Amino acid sequence: xxxxxxxxxxxxxxxxxxxxxxxxxxxxxxxxxxxxxxxxxxxxxxxxxxxxxxxxxxxxxxxxxxxxxxxxxxxxxxxxxxxxxx
Length: 86
Hints:
InterPro entries: Cu-bd, HMA_dom, HMA_dom_sf. Residues 67-86 are annotated as: Disordered. One of its GO terms (molecular function) is copper ion binding. The chain is of the alpha+beta class. It has a single domain (2-69), classed as Alpha-Beta Plaits (2-Layer Sandwich). Helix content is 27%, strand content 30%. It has two helices and four strands; from the N terminus they run βαββαβ. It has helices at 14-25, 52-62; strands spanning 2-9, 30-36, 41-46, 65-69. A hairpin with a 4-residue loop joins strand 2 and strand 3. The longest helix has 12 residues, at 14-25. It is globular.
């Protein structure tokens, strides 16, 4: 099992989380994800390593940016939203 953490920028609400969840879940090999708009944290679990580019592309498709992190990112302080619901 492989667990990889990313920092996602631009998420502000549950709708944002759901958009990221839907896109990342569709990446081949992903078995579980945890995503939080409050912290900007995305944790991807897979049976085998998934290419970082595939996760970043899926997050971008959802309308957000992502970078792989080695430790827990700082909570997002951005007040700008990428979604239309908040």
